Known about the structure:
11 strands, 41% helix
Amino acid sequence: MKPVAHVAAAVEILDAILEGAASEICLNRWARRNRFAGSHDRAAIRDLVFDALRCRRSLAWLGGAESGRGLMIGHLRRSGIDPGEVFTGTGYAPDPLSERETGTARRLEEASSAVRLDCPDWLWPQMTESLGDDTEPILALMQGRAPTFLRINTARTDLAAAQRKLVSDGIETDRHSLCGTALVVTANARRVRQSKAFRTGMVELQDVASQAVIECMLAHARGLRVLDYCAGGGGKALALAAGGAGNVTAHDSDVSRMDDIPVRAKRSGTPIDVSGAPRGEFDIVLCDVPCSGTGAWRRRPEGKWALTAGRLAELCSLQDVILDEAKGFVAPGGVLAYSTCSLLSAENECRVGAFLKRHGDWRQFGCERFTPLDGGDGFFLALLDRNGERQGAGPGT
């Protein structure tokens, strides 16, 4: 396929996504209907689609319409390419530009900050309140693709050995300073899942900030009973087990989300107990709660545009419920860890503050915040315990 055909395919797929269909479904459906397209073509189209979704507002501004054509016209203009050279109607190229489309060229500098930085208008005040002077640089970073990070399974290997094994499959990596288990892929990221290092459990795909959250927790979790209360696919449970936590139990209110955990645990050699109804008490209870995902917009750009004020309020209420439930599983002297991949104070500091108001016998003794400026996704972690129960835990420890 020629590049003009990639643009035409992206227009078609984006139109379906903008009508409400999921991006992966649309991409897979297009691939099934166009089996002549090779892996290079599919990758190029996928990149165009996700680049457009990350920058939906700014590209629509440049392209004159929030449609597949408008986004691709905006993409070309932002790239310094005359859309008229691509939208020719010749061969597999998209139809020629209309008179209206030709006359819609605008300078991005004329747009509002929320448009330039691809943030919904209703969310802009909360972003600026939460991030302060870092708002614009963080949002600018999230207009681009996220790096691919790997977590080294320290139960099986070390960084140097994992890097050597990855190189044998043509995958190049560098160490990342944010976390001692992290590698950032610098070449051939799409080969990771087929690599021997991945298939044999030496490495897992996991964002570096997510790894850093686990590294913070391991100081309190090594050799102890851990409950991952909102486990999902089990990435954090696996990292805790590999890092030396004792018995690790994974729980999720939707048990089907944990279907892959047994396979992943077997591959990595780190046993995980999967439970739909955990019992007893645990030394560490992690609540990696459902959230807005604002810290992971680079990876899941559709969530940016699907989020509403009403949905954010629902999430905050759910986060309160989860914390109140989970505290009942914390053993005397234990730790309740609250985590999100959100950049918003409403889901982070405000939820912890509300919990402490509801439960005066609890306190916060630790907190970490990561943003894309640190290299990975945005993450928040607060560590809580009951006042005076942990031995040797003074204020701020």
